[in-house]
Amino acid sequence: MGDINGYFEFVKKEIQKGGYVGYMCSYVPPEIIHASGFKPLLLTYDSLYSERVDSHFPKYFCPYLKNISEFLLREEITLEKVVVTDSCDSSKRIYECWKELGIVKDAYFLKIPFGRREEDILYFSEELRDLYNNFLNGKSEGKILESIAYFNDLREIIFRKSNNYSFLSSLYLSSGEAYIEKEKDHKYKIRVYLLASMIPVSFIDYLEQFGIKVEYIDSCFGNKNLERIESYGDDPYYNIAFHYLNRMSCIREINLNKRLEKIFNIKDKIDGVIIYTLKYCDPIIYHGSFLKKLLKESNIPTLIIDDDYTLSSKEQIRTRIEAFMEMLYEHRENNI
Fold this sequence. Notes:
CATH class of the largest domain: Alpha Beta
Strand order of the largest sheet: 2-1-3-4
Number of domains: 2
Number of strands: 8
Helix content: 40-55%
Distance between the termini: 41 Å
CATH architecture of the largest domain: 3-Layer(aba) Sandwich
Number of helices: 12
Radius of gyration: 20 Å
Largest sheet: 4 strands, parallel
Order of helices and strands: HEHEHEHEHHHEHEHHEHEH
Strand content: 5-15%
Shape: globular
Low-confidence stretches: none
Structural class: alpha/beta
């Protein structure tokens, strides 16, 4: 496990081995899957051009989920068990699409509350309990406590041994593995806060080619995945529910307070903000323009990159990134 392609090969190998439960939403706790004896497997793949999916999915369907479907169809993969959620419209529909295409055998629909009140945490706790006991055939709550400790240990290993956090660290962690970032030869000229819903791994690698270091990744599977699960009581379901509902908010939430607070807290460590807006993803499109307006009022330079998960318009993206970097250099000089 080492480079960008390493995770994609890892996913294919784990699917071939079997005994896994796939998932695609950051509200699905890998701790619950791991405790049941199954392998949690975050399903994501490299950017692919549509060859097989266009005839099966509407044009406005989530490009990230279409990309995974393209991968599954090309590789002729049938998924054993999958946990899907109601976190967005496309996520709600993906199971019906996959069932019709015959690429999933068994799936569980995990319902995610929008609120963060006590009753929401208790509701999500019961959802996790049902997932563990009825879909995953879990045997013991003690195993959940062991899995929480196991994933917290992985987070500690990554923090302690990595010189630099990487997006790959979060992807491997989400599948129960510790990925240690190797020292890179890049001489970073610019440091940014990156906001996205789902992003292709290769986009971050593309930014690094310009000398841009992503200081904080605010995405479905970004830096927030490395936050420890603490104990808030004796019920492990409650502890997990509290953690996943109260960490950095999902992009589907309207409230931007936590996000703005994080950006302002690391303002001295970054030169600007890049927002990767996924085509047809209404929450990130709305948040992107609104957040850019708020950041402009605070004199924080912001760039919005529109893409469909394929990075097909790299030259256009390159032109916008280079112009943004020039603006950041000028902004830096004016603020010295």
